[in-house]
Amino acid sequence: MKKFRTRLLPALIGGLILFFLMQQRVLAQRRGQGGLRAGEATPSQLLQIEAVQKELKLTDEQKSQATKVNESLTSGRRQIFSENAKDSKERQPKLAELNKKLDAEVEQMLDDSQKKRLKEILLQVNGGAELQKEEIQKALNLTDDQKTKLAEVQKENTKARRDALAQVEGSARTTKEAELYREGNQKLLSVLTPAQNKQFEQMQGEKIDVDLTQPAPAGGKSGGKGKSADGAKGKSGDGTKSPDGAKPADGG
Predict the structure, then answer these.
(1) Whole-angstrom Cα distance, residue 39 to residue 81?
(2) Which of 128, 151, 147 is nearest to 138 (CA)?
(3) Structure confidence by residue, pLDDT tens digits, 2-60
(4) 118 Cβ neighbours under 8 A, 6+ residues apart
(5) 50 C-beta neighbours (distance < 10 Å), count
């Protein structure tokens, strides 16, 4: 009996380790394999993508600096998530503060033309989610009613996403996320007038094909040409076909 227990214990420990690893894999899938998700990408995350690095003509030094900033983003988010419950009123303000701090660091490492182009790509990638930003609202001259409506739609989108993905995993989750992004993005853009929509499209500059579905390999590079933000090659953030193709966090 003693011999049996001696053999059983390592098997149990091994089983627990395997279970833990499987759970970590599921969590990685839930976070879009690295946290890059259409509508929620940050400047430092975009700078890890090879296609963006080439578009901005980043130097090796800039790539290294961007990797360090992105590592700070990852560790900072992990700390905020662990210290603040998902329904906590403190989580989102702290995430916003972290993003603002690191966005400023990204700005310092880029020249004026690189900054301008990165902002354009960020608008392409995040689509209507960028309409929450004060500088974008000012540029589009949004009314108070539009700002209120955008906040309401964003809240509805977040709830719809959380409910729809609660029991979905693996490749089915990726497909569902792309579908939810397209639907939510259209709802946000529908708040704009035709003239504002045209201006918002122009603010995105020339379309670039960015794949956010691939995890970043060693060296901080990720996704070249491939799928676009909404999961369909050759589409821009608003879901319309572009000539050459183009993709607050709830912490989930």
Answers:
(1) 19
(2) 147
(3) 555 556 555 555 554 544 444 444 344 344 334 477 788 999 999 999 999 999 999 99
(4) 43, 46, 47, 52, 56, 106, 110
(5) 20
Q: Which residues contact 111 (CB under 8 A, 6 or more apart)?
A: none
* CB within 8 Å of 24: residues ≥ 6 apart: none
SS3 content of the chain, % helix, strand, coil (to 5): 65, 0, 35
- Give φ, ψ of 61 to 5 degrees: -65, -40
Output the pTM of the full model. 0.71
Residue 176's pLDDT band, with cuts at 50, 70 and 90, is: confident
CB burial readout 163-188, b (16+ within 10 A) else e? eebeeeeeeebbebbbebbbebbebb
Residue type, 112: D
CA distance 214 to 226: 10
The pair of structure tokens assigned to 73 is 């983003």
